[in-house]
Amino acid sequence: MSHMEIVYADKRIVVAVKPAGILSTDMPGGMPELLRQELGTDCVRTVHRLDAQVSGLMVFARSVKAASLLSEQIRDHAFHKTYLAVVHGEPPESGTMTDLLGRDKLRRLTCVSPAPGPDIQEAKLTYRVVDRCKGYSLVSICLETGRTHQIRVQFASRGWPLAGDRKYGVGAETFPIALWSHRLSFSHPESGETLDFRLDPPNAQPWTWFSIERE
Fold this sequence. Notes:
It is a single chain. With 215 residues, the protein is mainly beta. Helix content is 13%, strand content 37%. The radius of gyration is 17 Å and the shape is globular.
């Protein structure tokens, strides 16, 4: 990928759009490497993750100290991430989902666990329905924990799999998984200023079926 869509950059952070199919972590061809090439800088560090298939806003640190301070905000729940997703069916207007999630490393799947145990982690999110159309619902989601595949598994386990999700969903749609990192809110690691970035999903199915309400 030759060109990164950069929303904001200064000497401490860069906010960019992660395309689907690109790793968010510092692996060959991953976002940090691509941003280093784009910005001509040595230090770009991942502080939060998106599944490879998922796209949308991400913030990266441009110094070791900035990475440490942003990671601290994430641990202290002072870093807020909002996602948009299109799900099958009609979940209630709003709600909270709390589950115990385990990871099957061999099959690379996350699953809901009936009981606590080794490597079982609590997962929590809140959501509200923004719009409904054609038997699908557009939902806005705030994550309180950041588990692997959390949104996908928590909705799928209740019978509302994400549209386009071939791993946990119906898998009949031709478009990519309908999960988008929509908004990031955090304090700048140097100035302490509150920053709030928002980007609507692409003008493509299934997003175009819905009215994306201004929050």
